[in-house]
Amino acid sequence: MKIKINGVEKTVDVDPEMPLLWVIRDVLGLTGTKYGCGEALCGSCTVHLDGKAVRSCVTPVRRADGHAVTTIEGLSPDGSHPLQQAWVELRTPQCGYCQAGQIMAAAALLAVTPKPTDAEIDRSMAGNLCRCGTYTRIRAAVKKAAGVPDDGGGT
Amino acid sequence: MRTIAVAAALAVSSCGARRAPPGNSELRPVGQTELRAVAEFETIRDRAERSRALFGEVARVLTHPRCINCHPSGDVPHQRMTMELHDPPVVRGPADAGVPGMECSSCHQDRNQELTRVPGAPNWHLAPIEMAWVGKSISAICHQLKDPARNGGKTLAQLVEHNGHDTLVAWAWAPGADREPAPGTQAQFGALTAAWVETGAECPEDQP
Question: Which domains does chain A have, with CATH numbers?
Answer without folding.
Answer: 2-74 (3.10.20.30), 82-146 (1.10.150.120)
